[in-house]
Design brief:
By secondary structure, the chain is mostly helical. The relative contact order is 0.10.
Length: about 450
């Protein structure tokens, strides 16, 4: 994204996604298990009984989301909207629920835009409800918090539809609200999470983008403060701490490239929510780059795949199939080529339409596996169904330009003879792999 508004945009994107500072140590895990559940900032609109009820419903909602029980999450949202419709938190909860259904991994952004109006409407409701508080008292901290929250969420939606100017303007307004909150409530976990992500990603911008941001008077970043704020947010145990903890792992996975710290986080989350495919997906991807982990992660990945496919939640079932794609690719690299080809064929029979890159990727992978097995006919059949103007079809165009595209019988035999060495590498048995390779090159 070539946008001077990237810090606020990415902040908003990551805060509400989980769709992840220091390692998730035993201390962190203990905090997640034992931390009290501090109440969210009251608005003064509810009775004490309704405040307690809303906090508990909000916590139950997040558990339902992370357990992929979206029907239960929807029931909670409906109940909250009926009982406390005047409170901005009811609409924020509704927006968080609707966010689960956005196809945010799609490469064609127009398919996401058509899904956004209900989320925008919920956020607009939240903002208007927060402004009722500010109309009564312009210094109302809760009013600023929930308006800033809604604005930062809205900035995320603008980013997903590539409306970067709108995202920048909205996230700048959100920061103003959230700064107001932290000046008066320095330990507020929700403001800290939102601003923590903002500071982290703003600090990581390239210098040329930072200069453009300076010209437009956009706020600068602060990596260390951002990381500390995110840590404080997930350790608080407050509503949404799961999102904060997931962002913690995501940062180290995708931006710091510290896989050990990232996996420490996702080990905790996947232990608590073993059927949530998005929380196990990092293991399957990291295994490509960390072969020694491959064997130890297979049970976790397979269990999640099975649980996700038994889920009543179509979103999680689709996420499980994306997870399966990564797992099967790993099998192909790890000396299980025949098994991988069978599993990829089965996956193609039930591949979801979202994200839109998954089916073409499955077809390309299966075509490659078929070519390595000497089967050009299957490879051609697999990619022939792709749209003519898609990049995957262009990448595989050579299949239809010449006849001898598949591996020769001798190459197939050589590939199969290397399978034991590949299995040894991905089992962490490097000495055995070296001996096997040596025996192949020096028979």
């Amino acid at each position: 994204m070539k946008s001077v508004f990237l810090p606020g945009v990415v902040c908003a994107l990551l805060v509400v996604v989980l769709s992840g500072v220091s390692t998730a140590s035993a201390q962190d895990r203990s905090l997640l298990e034992t931390a009290p559940s501090p109440r969210s900032l009251p608005t003064g609109l509810l009775t004490e009984a309704d405040e307690i009820w809303l906090d508990q419903e909000s916590q139950d909602f997040m558990v339902a989301i992370y357990q992929s029980r979206l029907d239960d999450a929807r029931a909670i949202v409906d109940s909250v909207l009926v009982r406390v419709p005047q409170d901005p938190r009811s609409s924020l909860l509704q927006a968080r629920y609707l966010r689960e259904f956005l196809a945010d991994q799609n490469t064609h952004r127009q398919t996401i835009e058509v899904q956004m109006p209900p989320v925008y409407a919920a956020l607009d409701d939240a903002r208007q409800k927060a402004e009722v508080l500010l109309d009564k008292d312009e210094d109302d901290v809760a009013g600023h918090l929930y308006r800033g929250w809604a604005r930062m969420f809205e900035a995320q939606l603008h980013t997903l539809s590539a409306s970067y100017w709108s995202a920048g303007r909205t996230s700048k307004k959100a920061k103003k609200d959230l700064d107001f909150v932290l000046d008066r409530d320095p330990d507020n976990p929700h403001a800290k999470l939102l601003m923590g992500a903002f500071y982290y990603f703003a600090d990581g911008l390239p210098s040329v983008v930072k200069f453009a941001a300076w010209l437009l008077r956009l706020p600068s970043g602060d990596r260390d403060r951002g990381l500390q704020y995110i840590r404080d947010a997930y350790r608080s145990g407050a509503f949404g701490y799961q999102d904060a903890f997931a962002i913690h792992g995501l940062i180290y996975f995708a931006f710091e490239a510290d896989f050990q710290k990232s996996l420490s986080t996702f080990e905790t989350l996947s232990h608590d929510y073993p059927g949530n495919a998005r929380l196990v997906e990092p293991f399957a991807v990291i295994d490509f780059f960390w072969p020694q982990r491959f064997a130890m992660d297979q049970d976790r990945i397979s269990r999640c795949w099975q649980l996700s496919q038994a889920s009543e939640d179509s979103v999680n079932r689709a996420g499980g199939r994306r997870l399966r794609y990564y797992q099967v690719l790993g099998w192909h690299l790890a000396g299980r080529a025949a098994e991988a080809r069978v599993a990829m064929t089965q996956l193609l029979e039930n591949v979801p339409s979202q994200p839109d890159w998954l089916e073409p990727s499955v077809r390309l992978a299966l075509a490659d596996m078929s070519l390595l097995a000497g089967d050009a006919q299957t490879a051609r059949e697999v990619v022939r169904t792709l749209e003519k103007d898609t990049r995957p079809k262009k990448w595989m165009g050579y299949l239809f330009e010449k006849d001898d595209v598949a591996a020769s019988p001798q190459e197939v035999v050589a590939f199969l003879r290397l399978q034991p060495a590949a299995r040894a590498i991905y089992a962490g048995k490097l000495d055995r792999a070296a001996r096997l390779l040596d025996s192949e090159t020096n028979p």
